[in-house]
Structures are given as C-alpha cells and as structure tokens.
Design goal:
467 residues; 82% helix
Length: 467
C-alpha cells in the first residue's frame, strides 16, 4: 500500500469517527431540545425554532448549490460533446469559444459566491467567538460570586476539591480569602446572622472606636468581651482580605482583558495572514486557470490544424475513391450493356425455339388426335358388334325363360286338376271364446247366496276387449 492510499484510508477512518461523534452529539442535543418535561422547555423551544430555521436554510442552500453544479456539469458535457463532433469552420470555433466562456463564467461566478459565503461565515464565527468569550467571562464572575457564598460546614473531600479548583483557576488573594472563610466559619465568622448584624450595627455606629464594646455587650447577649474582641479582630482581617480580593479580581480582570485583546489582535493578524494567503491562493488559481485556458486554446489551435490537415487528406482520399468508384461504375455499366445485348439475343433465340417447339407440339398433338380418332372408330365398331351379340343373346335368353314359364304353368295346371279342394271360410270363429276362456269363466262363477260385487279377472288382450 502506497503512502497516498494510507492517507486516504486514515482520512476515511477519521471521517467515520467524526460522523459517529456528530451522531452522538445530535442525539444528546435532541434529547435536551425535544424533552417536553424539561424545566427549560421555554428556552429550548426557542433553540428548537432556531435549529429548524437553520436546517431549512441549509437545505435550501444545498439545493441551490446542487442546481448550480448540475448546470455547470451539463454545460461541460455539452462542450465535450461538441468537441467530439468538431467541425473545422469559423462558426463552430466561435460557438465553441462562446460555450467555453459561458462555462468559465459559470465556474467563476460559483467560486465568487462561495467565497462571499465563506467570508460571511468567518465573520459570523468571529462574532460568535467574541460572544462566547463574553459569556465565559460572565460565567467566571458568577463562579467567583458563588464561591464566596459557600458555607464552611462541608466534607473534607469537598474542601480538598475546592482548594484544588481555587488553586488552579483563581488568583492567590481570592484563594486566601476563600480559605480564610472556610477556616473561620464563613462570612459571619462562625456567628449566626442575627448576632453578626447587631455587631456590625454597633461597630458602624461607633465607627470602629473602642467605645462600641459596652453597647455591643448590651446587644449581644451570651457573648463575652473576649468573644467580641476576637470577632472584631476576625472582622478586621476579613475586611483586609476582602479588599485584597477586590483588588486582585480587578487586576485579574484587567489582565484577562489585556490577554483577550492580545488574542484578538493575534487572531486579527492571523485572519489577515489567512486572507492574504487566500488572495495569493486565488491569484495562483486564476493564473493557473489562465495558463490552463491558454494551454487549452493552444491545444484547440493545434487540434484545428491537425483536423484541417486530416480533412484535406480525407477530401483527397475521398476524391480518389470517387474517381475509382466512377471508373468501376462505368465498367459495370458497359458490362451490363453487353450482358443486356447477350440476354436479348438469347431471349430472341429462345423465343424462336419455343415457337418451333410449339408448332411441332401442335403437329404432334394433331397426329395423336387423328390416331385416337381412328382407334376410337375401330373400337366403336367392335363395341357395336359386341353389343349386337349381347342383345341377341339376351333376346334368346328371354325367349327361353318365357318358354320355361309356360311349361311350368302347364305343369301346375295339370297338378291342380288332379288335387282340387273347396274350403269355406267362417269369419265368426274369430269372435267366439276359446275353450280355455270358457273353462275359466266356469271356475270364477259367483254363487247364488252372495251378491256379485267385484269380479276379479286378468288383463284382456286388446284385440279381445269389448267382446
């Protein structure tokens, strides 16, 4: 793997890690912004609206940039297509020049818009950094104010943690004052608020003179003179340390302001250097683009010359090919004329031959027809003779059959004369009952003692019904 590939892999890994971090930060941010049960829902709703408007603005800017890039890409593709279909004509060169100028203007306009946008973003970033610095200073001042109000009664671990924090981030006078308060019992010196306020009232009334002691003993029941003197010494030290703390904070603020101004000057200087570098880079890019344009122009001129030479060569070759093609076509036409003459001669000969063959065929058919007529006449004569013979034979056979029939009738007449019977026909016997029917009627006859209600009988044939 080369160094370039290793850099690419490392860049992709870093980008993936940053992407994961951004996703986690977005998740935490959404958890705070969109939590409806949060105590700061009103403030978060303002941030939510701001985020929504900024998201819409980013999407619209992204869509606009994509449209501009798509337009530039389309113009570049069209320019490439025109270069592929190049024609060595002044109109084409003019059109190509206009297209290149259009693409170049579009790219320069896009770069100028992006540069203005980046400058505006840098200004907004500078303003945001200044505002954050102001907020950090306010938070530090709040931290200083909150630290002074802490109570003394805390765990030892908490004291150690506070001491470390104070020692790391605050001036020595502030740390000394805070440790004094922790050590002596806070801003009341270990007293409750009521006694301390009475002491301050009396001490302020007497303006710090020793005559305040008698009146203090009257106001502060339960406190001895030693307690009051000890509290007085504590208060003197408290005022001294508090004044030192104020001066230290003032100096610290001045120092912070000076450091901030120095940082701003350095930042402005770095921004000025960055702008100069950007201008140098843009100038270099413009020079590079100009050199690239000149190189492309030279390449186009060279390509035009080569194209013109190629076009002239192609024209000469085309003319040569056209001459050869014309010669070939001339030879082909001559050959076709010769073939046409041969074909007409062959067609004429074939036609004459076909006519002769047709005459011969007609003669042959006529001869065959005459031959068939002769054969048919001979066969008709034969068939007529055969039919006469058959007719005579049939007449003879018919006469023989008639003779045979007459002889048969004569024989039958002789037999009838010998055996002659006369039988009379009795039509009434068909209607008379049979013997079986008569016997049946006898078996089913009714008795005289019982009346005849129903006579059982079998089915009567249809030809005997109604008798």
């Amino acid at each position: 793997m080369t160094a370039e590939q290793a850099k690419k892999v490392e860049f992709l890994r870093t980008a993936e890690k940053l992407k994961v971090q951004i996703a986690n930060m977005e998740k935490d941010k959404n958890g705070h912004l969109y939590n409806r049960r949060s105590d700061f829902r009103v403030e978060y709703s303002i941030l939510e609206e701001l985020e929504h408007s900024m998201t819409v603005k980013r999407k619209s800017e992204k869509t606009k940039i994509l449209q501009q890039l798509s337009k530039i890409q389309t113009n570049v593709k069209r320019l490439h297509q025109e270069l592929r279909d190049a024609k060595p004509t002044p109109e084409f060169v003019k059109k190509l020049k206009e297209m290149m100028e259009e693409v170049e203007n579009a790219i320069n306009t896009f770069k100028e818009e992006q540069r203005e946008i980046y400058e505006q973003l840098l200004k907004e970033e500078k303003t945001a950094i200044n505002e954050l610095s102001v907020f950090e200073r306010k938070v530090e001042l709040w931290a200083l104010g909150n630290i002074t109000t802490e109570k003394v009664l805390k765990l030892q671990s908490a004291r150690v943690c506070v001491d470390k924090t104070l020692g790391n981030h605050l001036p020595a006078e502030v740390v000394e004052f805070e440790r004094f308060l922790q050590r002596t019992g806070g801003r009341q010196g270990g007293w409750d608020d009521y006694d301390h306020q009475n002491f301050l009232k009396v001490w302020t009334k007497h303006r710090g003179r020793l005559s305040y002691m008698d009146e203090a003993l009257e106001y502060l029941c339960g406190k001895t003179k030693e307690d009051i003197e000890h509290h007085y010494k504590w208060y003197q030290e408290f005022l001294f340390l508090h004044e030192r703390k104020k001066e230290s904070i003032k100096k610290w603020r001045e120092k912070q302001q000076q450091e901030k101004e120095r940082n701003l000057r350095e930042k402005e200087k770095s921004e000025q250097m960055l702008k100069e570098k950007l201008l140098q880079f843009e100038e270099a890019q413009k020079q590079k683009a100009e050199e690239e344009r000149k190189r492309q122009q030279a390449a186009i001129e060279t390509w035009k010359k080569e194209k013109a030479i190629a076009f002239a060569t192609e024209q000469a070759l085309r003319l040569k090919l056209e001459e050869e093609k014309e010669k070939k076509q001339q030879k082909e036409r001559q050959r076709q004329c010769h073939m046409k003459l041969l074909l007409e001669r062959y067609t004429l000969q074939k036609k004459e031959k076909e006519e002769l063959e047709k005459l011969e065929e007609e003669k042959r058919k006529e001869a065959e027809k005459e031959e068939r007529k002769r054969i048919a006449a001979e066969k008709i004569t034969k068939f007529q003779e055969r039919d006469l013979r058959k007719l005579e034979l049939r007449i003879l056979q018919k006469q023989a059959k008639e003779l045979e029939k007459l002889e048969k009738e004569k024989r039958l007449a002789k037999l009838r004369e010998k055996v002659e019977m006369h039988i009379a026909r009795d039509h009434s016997r068909l209607y008379r009952p049979t013997k079986g029917w008569e016997e049946r009627l006898k078996d089913v006859a009714p008795t005289a003692s019982e009346p005849l209600l129903r006579i059982p009988h079998r089915a009567v044939p249809t030809w005997r019904q109604g008798l």
